[in-house]
Amino acid sequence: MLESVEEQRRRFEIECEFVQSLANPHYLNFLSQRGYFKEDYFVNYLKYLLYWKRPEYARCLKYPQCLFMLEALQEKEFREALESTANAKFIEDQLIFQWHYYLRKRQRILDNPPSDEESTPTTSQIKN
């Protein structure tokens, strides 16, 4: 049976929200502690959701790090490691560090855009 346009839109929204929720390591810890990652149907669903890595879908995501987490969830060892709250906290800390680094670096670039001379390497710079 084919889905109606409304049903397709609703499924898209639900899957988009779920994929983005994977960016939250504490939610992943919650799923792991409740045994979802040990269920074949759930692991298969995570595999199915890999289509979100395609550019036409990825551009709809607000939290692109969810794609990294989705990819990592394909590995059994990663799913098992998420049972530990300490591991979820470590992942959360690393995500925060990345965001801070990205924001600071982006702000530096916006505040001090490279001049044409700085962006084009000289012959002596290439040789070194």
TrEMBL record:
Domain of life from the UniProt record: Eukaryota
Cellular compartments annotated: Nucleus
Name this protein carries in UniProt: Mediator of RNA polymerase II transcription subunit 31
Quaternary organization: Component of the Mediator complex.
One Gene Ontology biological process: regulation of DNA-templated transcription
Keyword Heme: no
Keywords: Activator, Nucleus, Transcription, Transcription regulation
One Gene Ontology term, aspect cellular component: mediator complex
Organism: Mesorhabditis belari
InterPro entries: Med31_sf, Mediator_Med31
